[in-house]
Design brief:
The protein is an alpha+beta fold. It has a single domain (2-98), classed as Chorismate Mutase Domain, subunit A. Helices cover 45% and strands 25% of the residues. α1 crosses α3 (37-50) and α3 (37-50) packs across α4. The longest helix is centred in the first third of the chain and has 15 residues, at 2-16.
């Protein structure tokens, strides 16, 4: 199943990713919104993990919450994914960001 999801996700990426930088990925809301919920959850989980988010905290419940909010068109939502990674929904985009660590 993961292999198939990776193939479908790879096909979406050129249209999906608006910006990608150090500790940040910005996705097009409309591309995600038109995609199957299982695929959206898979994509979000992969990006969160890639930014160093906690896989344990970025659990099914939180990813499902983000996917449902996307499909309903609920903006202004911010979901903590652990290890300083957040998913923010709004303004036609989905931002997945990792806050820089504190310097000591």
């Amino acid at each position: 199943m993961d292999r198939a999801m990776n193939v479908f996700a790879g096909r979406l990426l050129p249209d999906l990713v608006r910006k990608k930088g150090s500790g940040r990925v910005v996705l097009d809301w409309n591309v995600l919104r038109g995609s199957p919920p299982a695929l959206v959850t898979h994509i979000l989980r992969g990006i969160v993990a890639g930014l160093g988010g906690s896989v344990e905290i970025a659990d099914f419940e939180r990813l499902t919450e983000a996917t449902r909010a996307l499909n309903k068109g609920t903006g202004g939502l911010r979901i903590e994914m652990g290890a300083g990674v957040t998913i923010s929904l709004g303004s036609g985009e989905v931002r997945i960001e990792k806050r820089p660590g504190r310097k000591r």
